[in-house]
């Protein structure tokens, strides 16, 4: 079975639809959305509606920090991420807000653990930026029965970590479209990147496909109309920074 892993969509319906179409073209049979459906982008209602449709079709979903902020916007804006929370909240229906609020922080399916940030205290939204943070997340996952694979987002970058034969943690930077063997005798953690706001100076959307039979993980990059997504942000009078990021991939 091919499981498409998508995270950090950030209300970017253009990127979301492009990645869904690409995944289906590449044989995806199930979808997993790893949080941050909303925030930053101009189309939160359309993205949440699409996510609801996918869940009705059997998709797996977990909550991200921006999803939580959309449900309960911060009283004071303290970070860049806070700036669109109240606006996003106002764009969503009561049903959509309840949908986001009820999403779980983690979800385990056999050997796979899905989480937005880290398995280590998922509600604290730790960033898995390096080997230390990846080790803490894998250690927390190791306490759970059968988990061999942790898939997360939050950092907007694509990276693969695994424990080698010496038990040391290894870091691997994948090449888009190239399948990576991920055998079960090791433990793996992948940050699958951002659909809606990549930050590696490449505007192409990011996602990954996990083949549960061949035990291969393929990181993907997808071109989409990021200029239209940027225009939509500016037309919504959201901070121009978020439009600029889409055009520059940062």
Structural features, described:
This protein has a six-stranded mixed β-sheet. It starts with a strand and ends with a helix. It is α/β, with parallel strands linked by helices. 32% of the residues lie in helices and 22% in strands. The chain has a single domain, classed as Purple Acid Phosphatase, chain A, domain 2 (4-Layer Sandwich), CATH 3.60.21. The chain has eight helices and twelve strands.
Structural features:
250 residues, alpha/beta, Purple Acid Phosphatase, chain A, domain 2, six-stranded mixed β-sheet, 8 helices, 12 strands, 22% strand
The CATH class label is Alpha Beta
CATH topology: Purple Acid Phosphatase, chain A, domain 2
- For the record, the count of structural domains works out to 1
* Low-pLDDT segments: none
How many alpha or pi helices?
A: 8
On the 0 to 100 scale, the average pLDDT is 95
Q: What would you call the structural class? A: alpha/beta
What is the name of the CATH superfamily? Answer: Metallo-dependent phosphatases
Major sheet: arrangement of strands = 3-2-1-11-12-9
Radius of gyration: 17 Å
Give the CATH architecture.
4-Layer Sandwich
Percent in helix = 25-40%
Q: Give me the strand/helix succession.
A: EHEHEHHHEEHEEEEEEEHH
| Global shape | globular
Strand count, sense and barrel status of the largest sheet are: 6 strands, mixed
């Amino acid at each position: 079975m091919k499981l498409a892993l998508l995270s950090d969509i950030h209300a970017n319906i253009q990127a979301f639809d492009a990645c869904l179409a690409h995944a289906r073209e590449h044989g995806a049979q199930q979808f997993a959305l790893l949080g941050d459906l909303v925030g930053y982008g101009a189309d939160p209602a359309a993205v949440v509606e699409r996510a609801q449709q996918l869940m009705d079709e059997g998709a797996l979903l977990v909550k991200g920090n921006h999803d939580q902020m959309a449900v309960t916007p911060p009283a004071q804006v303290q970070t860049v991420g806070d700036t669109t929370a109240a606006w996003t909240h106002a764009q969503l229906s009561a049903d959509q807000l309840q949908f986001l609020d009820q999403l779980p922080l983690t979800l385990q399916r056999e050997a796979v653990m899905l989480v937005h940030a880290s398995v280590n205290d998922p509600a604290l939204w730790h960033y898995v930026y390096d080997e230390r943070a990846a080790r803490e997340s894998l250690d927390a996952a190791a306490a759970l029965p059968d988990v061999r694979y942790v898939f997360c987002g939050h950092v907007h970058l694509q990276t693969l970590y695994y424990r080698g034969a010496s038990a040391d943690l290894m870091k691997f930077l994948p090449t888009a479209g190239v399948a990576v063997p991920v055998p079960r005798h090791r433990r793996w953690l992948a940050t699958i990147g951002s659909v809606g706001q990549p930050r590696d100076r490449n505007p192409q959307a990011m996602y990954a496909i996990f083949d549960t039979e061949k035990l291969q993980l393929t990181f993907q990059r997808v071109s989409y109309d990021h200029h239209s997504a940027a225009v939509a942000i500016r037309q919504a009078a959201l901070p121009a920074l978020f439009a600029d990021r889409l055009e520059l991939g940062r």
